[in-house]
Structure formats: C-alpha cells, structure tokens
Amino acid sequence: xxxxxxxxxxxxxxxxxxxxxxxxxxxxxxxxxxxxxxxxxxxxxxxxxxxxxx
Length: 54
Prior knowledge:
Blueprint: H1 8-20, H2 25-39, H3 49-53
C-alpha cells in the first residue's frame, strides 16, 4: 500500500525511518515539513479552519 504519491522506494524508506524513530509516518512527515518551512522562513497564507469559525 502506498502512503503518499511517491515512488515505492521512497514510501519504503519513509516507513523505515518512521519505525526507527518510533513515530507514525504522518507526524514524522509533518515535522520535517515544519522544519523546512521554518528554515526557509515560510508562512502559511491560509487561516486555519478552527480559527476562522470563531
């Protein structure tokens, strides 16, 4: 089963990395994404749905 649209090899490596870090795949990918965006000084342009409802 493919987790995200990447090569089978990439998905396998991501699963291995998540297992080695004792984390599930989604939080691991999210953490890497946040790390990159912080390093690149990017900011979200959309308002989160919960904040917009209030």
